[in-house]
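Deliverable D2.4 — example input (structure tokens):
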């Protein structure tokens, strides 16, 4: 026990007795010793709590280790980042980017800065850090090597323009070729270097001009919708009944597969569920986008017939009745940039469904625009939810964001809701193709000049190429009577595959719609047995 000098034996016995009682107490009883009387108004709660913690710590020390001095661990001192360490990391990342990165071509998801640089999608920040660690130990053994977390923090804070591109990011091939020539121009003459750099600058200037034109049309469209108090695509509205100009954009999204679960079973990745295509038409002024959901059995392909049919259905059922319109789309020749789409635009102005119609194509490789934004909002919800039939997908589209609207082209049982017409067969007898259509980016049609298309290669070209699309100006195409294309539906082999391999992944309420039982196969005809020829 504790021995105190100068105490009488009786007092020493009392001290030993009190100490034994103190060591036998629990932590809760020890904490109660610090409670003050309620009548004491000068006591403070933080001081009482601190005294309680101190007394409990002393009790635990005496109980576990006896009467020995307490050893207090000193907190570990942090090694703060020094300016020289930060500068070394910045210099290494910049040097690595100068060797392996490409200049951002001005069109990258979630990136508005044109001066950025992107590394290959196979490169990660951890991989760059390992090379930094290896290089530092080899050439600067006395220098401090920062950890991966500090390396990432410095990269994110001081070099936000240098990024590792995502696998989904499709860069412009023309930009990549020009950048490669610029990087490898060290041994060239000054004139050749200047010419190589001017080619890339001219390309980027063209891209920026086209993007500015698109953004300008969007702003004007929003101002018109605000002035006209337009907030919804609540058609149908009679065509050319409102004297203003509107802007629309349309594009296909990547198809999705269903049934889909947010925790997808591994086995289904080796199988082919039912497919659903998506075609979106966006009115940036409101803004709202109509998403056409095309079931696998309702599709008529992704050619011009489908594109024109969905655009025609949009104008008839969701259009705002504008007199003038501008349309933006990507440069896909098989879907948008072809003679049949031009013929359809001319057909609309001939029958004064629009008085002025402009068709504009974005530069190849720089085609990110409004429909991709709303596709992304839907895909974000889709990957986190379950969908077992078209009704579930349509509900996801409507709930993904306020501007998204779902429009079924047809149901799983074959009921057609949006008809697809054979516009190629309907327009072919009355129009002729425009030569060298791929070299033009902007087309204009006027109702006062029926059948004539005005084409420009660039947005800032003053001169327009004028071409008459009608074979005979006195013979105009009719306003109605389009031949209807019936969807082929699912063949029996595909139905049998869905029933056998995919049906088990559907919920009970969707099994008979998404993966119904295929019809019985027709009986095979008996083959006649050949009798051997007589000798």
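Example output (designed residues):
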């Amino acid at each position: 026990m504790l021995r105190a000098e100068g105490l009488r034996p009786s007092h020493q016995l009392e001290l030993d007795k009190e100490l034994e009682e103190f060591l036998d107490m629990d932590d809760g009883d020890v904490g109660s010793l610090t409670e003050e009387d309620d009548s004491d108004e000068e006591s403070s709660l933080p001081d009482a709590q601190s005294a309680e913690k101190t007394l409990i710590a002393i009790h635990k020390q005496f109980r576990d280790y006896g009467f020995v001095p307490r050893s207090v661990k000193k907190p570990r001192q942090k090694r703060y980042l020094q300016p020289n360490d930060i500068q070394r990391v910045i210099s290494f990342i910049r040097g690595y980017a100068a060797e392996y990165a490409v200049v951002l071509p001005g069109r990258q998801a979630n990136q508005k800065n044109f001066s950025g640089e992107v590394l290959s999608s196979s490169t990660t920040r951890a991989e760059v850090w390992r090379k930094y660690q290896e290089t530092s130990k080899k050439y600067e053994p006395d220098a401090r090597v920062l950890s991966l977390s500090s390396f990432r923090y410095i990269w994110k804070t001081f070099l936000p323009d240098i990024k590792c591109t995502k696998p989904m990011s499709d860069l412009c091939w023309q930009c990549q070729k020009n950048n490669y020539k610029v990087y490898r121009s060290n041994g060239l003459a000054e004139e050749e270097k200047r010419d190589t750099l001017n080619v890339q600058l001219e390309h980027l200037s063209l891209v920026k001009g086209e993007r500015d034109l698109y953004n300008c049309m969007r702003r004007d469209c929003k101002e018109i919708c605000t002035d006209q108090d337009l907030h919804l695509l609540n058609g149908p509205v009679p065509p050319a009944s409102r004297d203003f100009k509107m802007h629309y954009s349309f594009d296909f999204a990547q198809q999705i597969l269903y049934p889909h679960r947010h925790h997808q079973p591994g086995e289904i990745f080796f199988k082919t569920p039912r497919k659903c295509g998506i075609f979106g038409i966006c009115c940036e002024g409101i803004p709202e986008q109509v998403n056409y959901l095309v079931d696998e059995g309702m599709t008529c392909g992704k050619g011009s017939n489908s594109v024109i049919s969905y655009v025609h259905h949009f104008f008839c059922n969701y259009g705002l009745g504008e007199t003038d319109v501008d349309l933006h789309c990507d440069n896909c020749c098989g879907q948008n940039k072809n003679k049949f789409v031009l013929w359809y635009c001319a057909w609309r102005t001939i029958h004064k469904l629009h008085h002025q119609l402009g068709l504009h194509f974005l530069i190849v490789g720089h085609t990110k625009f409004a429909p991709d934004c709303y596709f992304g909002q839907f895909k974000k919800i889709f990957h986190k939810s379950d969908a077992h039939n078209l009704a579930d997908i349509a509900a996801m589209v409507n709930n993904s964001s306020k501007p998204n609207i779902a429009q079924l082209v047809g149901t799983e049982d074959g009921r057609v809701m949006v008809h697809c017409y054979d516009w190629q067969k309907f327009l072919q007898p009355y129009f002729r193709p425009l030569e060298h259509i791929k070299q033009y980016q902007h087309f204009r049609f006027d109702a006062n000049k029926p059948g004539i298309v005005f084409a420009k290669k660039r947005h800032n070209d003053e001169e327009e190429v004028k071409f008459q699309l009608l074979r005979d100006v006195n013979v105009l195409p009719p306003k109605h009577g389009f031949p209807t294309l019936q969807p082929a539906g699912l063949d029996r082999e595909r139905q049998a595959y869905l029933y056998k391999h995919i049906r088990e992944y559907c919920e009970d309420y969707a099994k008979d719609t998404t993966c119904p039982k295929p019809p019985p196969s027709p009986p095979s005809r008996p083959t006649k047995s050949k009798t051997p020829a007589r000798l």
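The longest strand covers residues 242-258.
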